[in-house]
Description:
The protein contains ten helices and eight strands. The chain has helices spanning 48-51, 54-57, 88-101, 114-125, 158-167, 176-187, 193-204, 234-243, 259-262, 264-276, and strands at residues 8-16, 19-28, 33-37, 61-65, 108-112, 132-136, 221-226, 248-252.
Amino acid sequence: MSHIEKISGGYVHFDIQGQSHRVYFESAGTGPVLLCLHTAGSDSRQYRGILNCTAITERFQVVCFDLPYHGKSSPPAGWQQREYQLTSQLYVDTIIGFMQAMDIERPLAMGCSIGGRVVLHLALQHPEKFRGLIGLQSGAHVNPYYNLEWLHRPDVHGGEVCAGIVSGLIGPHAAEAERWETLWHYMQGGPGVFKGDLHFYKAQGDLRALAHQIDTRKCPLHLLTGEFDYSCTPDDSRDLAQMIAGAHLKIMPGLGHFPMSEAPEEFIAHLLPVLQKFH
């Protein structure tokens, strides 16, 4: 049976750190904005389950965008002349710039993996700009567990090695179709993009010395972490929650590092009670 999903998309032009960018976004629903941030090396297709969930879109306008270099957002002009590296400030400036360009005021922001890390930076730098923050697979840092140089080598297929590295992060109970769709997004990433994102995740975004400064009275923080994840383990999220007074943490049984794409229905069951606190 054919049908058309009630999702609209488009491009918005705005400057990031003085350089013009053309950024792709999708949205669905009405109400306060739920701004969704994708993982390293992937794109906003990870949130298709959220965009198509009427229990959410009846109460929120879900907005997702592809970071520059990702998905349908091309790199800026001159990209070939430099190595792509995502930094903490570049990430924060991109999110705030997108919000300003789209006239989004005080959204509820939700990010996974690097997105789950950057929401902590948002809480530190711009708590007044958000009605709340949701971190999926959020930790204050990550211990190195593979060599990033494998992610961008002329003798290695970039897309396949990226998918191979993250394949073990998907929960063991994920349906075959969702598992392989999640991996397909990684197989399509641009050369060196996953590596550049992980510069932020592994080297530049460590918040162990600053996380205790997050004030959840200014901006509530909820953490949702799948139990099967060796990149951000449940203990990593527990440690983070202990650093931040007032942070709320739930460990999601059976889920892995990509809950919104590997098991959308199961994840939404955990997400809805959190969203009810903001509507």
